[in-house]
Amino acid sequence: MATTALPIVQGTDPSRCVLDAFRTAIAKRVADALPPLTVEQVYAGVDYGKKGVDFTVALPRFRLPGKVDELAKKVLDNFQPDEWVEAVVHDKAFLHFTCATSGLTRLVLDQVHALTNDTPEPEYGSNTTGRGKRIVIEYSSPNIAKSFHVGHLRSTIIGAFLANLYKASGWEVISMNYLGDWGTQFGLIAVGFEKYGSREALEQDAIKHLFDVYVKVNADADKDPAVKVEAAAFFKRMEDGDEDALKDWRVWRDLSIRKYEGEYARLNVHFDVYTGESRVSKESMDNALAQLDEMGLIEDEEGAKRVNLEKYKLGKAVVRKKDGTSIYLTRDIGGAIERYEKYKFDKMIYVVSSQQDMHLSQFFKVLKLMGYEWADHLEHVNYGLVLGMSTRKGTVVFLDQIIREATSVMHEHMKGNEDKYSSIEDPEATSQEIGITGIKIQDMAAKRINNYTFNWDRMLSFEGDTGPYLQYAHVRLCSISRKNPELFPLPPRSQIDTTLLVEPAARDIVFLLGSYPDVVKVALRTHEPSGVVTFAFRLSHAISAAWETVIVKGEADIEKARARMWMYLCARDVLGAAMRLLSITPLERM
Ligand code: ARG
């Protein structure tokens, strides 16, 4: 195909996002017709169009002299279709552009294919904007003995997505789990363990057992203040490094981590570093406090030390208790400093519930006041609550119970179709993956900050925009090659005649495929997984809409059947890429 040389617009990369080239072509036309506009200036104003329109330019944004109608006329007067742009329509203040279909189809499918199959690493949709940069992403960070249940599920799911997203954008990613493994509550558990603990129960399920002990001793402490005093004394011994006081705690920590690792593996989530509040050194906290003191930011409050952040509407925050023991906030301050020293990150993200907005603002501010330049590169990615998280019978649960229950519902469902069931190698693993997909999609479907209600029926349904539906859409795309073996091997892609893909439903698919690299970029800017989820469903719907008209099986023209087959394979690859970005493993059969 003859391609007119296009100017290069800064920040675009047509070798990974071919729609960049189409946008550049549109920008060039407008700029040529409307001097003194530059291609760059117009490019920034080439937006995706609404329904049925590829790209739209809103003329008023350029603040040119003259009426919009006259400006539009100048663009339309000169218009000649070429291999990039097929048509332009003037509508009030807008110009709507249609990409030339044959070039679009050829270039998009070529690019999807090449970046999926012909290069070892960069998957289609990835970009290089983070090359040479390093990011620490802290997520999940459950407490090994407090509220063990699934409150941290969102941090885990969103964090895993962000880690994938930054990797796909060329960043070096260090994913970190900062366990809540330190603090007064461990004194409390130690006291409780003497009374209620059992080594056996601990071995069996450390997280659950420690939680039970915690609940019981907490109830005791509510009734009897002496329990709290005892707990504080115990924690003080731990802080002072008393080996006897630390022995049990070590076992709890190890067993909890082992248990969590199993769950993370099932969720397809991985950490480069397991650290925790206990790992923040006394030294770094002492130094930080001394420095704050010197700067006159510390107030004494009956022996406790506080940093006054009222000027910034962030209240007064205790940084050291009266008995000299550390607290959550101080550990975060010391921890961040240590992390910077160790990783020299360009950016660090904390994926933590919006309930801790104040806490994060406080310690970011303290670091900033201490003069650390990198404090500007800390970011809190927050999220709303999960309401009504319980088993179907209504009891509060731990993460593993949720996974087990989702798995068994899906397993029962699969058994309903005996033929299919027998063709699946590992039905248990398959149903677990579908169940987990249901949980994840429900979690990432809306904006992070929204609360949502955990809804079993909706989450595990095959109807509507659910996880199981998404897996089904992918499986269906995989089955089409199994069902049409006579079309394989496909000819080399240059010999596949893409001009045979003339149906509007095929074009819709192609255009969506082309937009995927932009979906990734937007997610990187907003830290929202929901855009990727929406994309995956739009693509699934477009495929489903094409299914009846753009057929493969039963298409008499073999060239046509092959072109369609190729398009569906590309669609499968992109849908799979989007699912993987969301930390979901796309299934081939179910
Ligand atoms: N373990 C904490 C909790 O469950 C979350 C930790 C968030 N991260 C941080 N650096 N403070 O509440």
TrEMBL record:
Span of domain DALR anticodon binding: 470-590
Please name the top-level EC class of this enzyme.
Answer: ligase
An example GO BP is: mitochondrial translation
Q: Which UniProt keywords apply?
A: Aminoacyl-tRNA synthetase, ATP-binding, Ligase, Nucleotide-binding, Protein biosynthesis
Domain of life of the source: Eukaryota
Reactions that this protein is recorded to catalyse = tRNA(Arg) + L-arginine + ATP = L-arginyl-tRNA(Arg) + AMP + diphosphate
Family annotation (Gene3D superfamilies): Arginyl tRNA synthetase N-terminal domain, HUPs, Isoleucyl-tRNA Synthetase, Domain 1
Q: Which SMART domains match?
A: DALR_1 (SM00836)
**EC number annotated for this UniProt entry:** 6.1.1.19
UniProt-recorded Gene Ontology molecular function terms: arginine-tRNA ligase activity; ATP binding
Give the protein family.
Belongs to the class-I aminoacyl-tRNA synthetase family.
CC per GO annotation? mitochondrion
The name under which this protein is listed is arginine--tRNA ligase
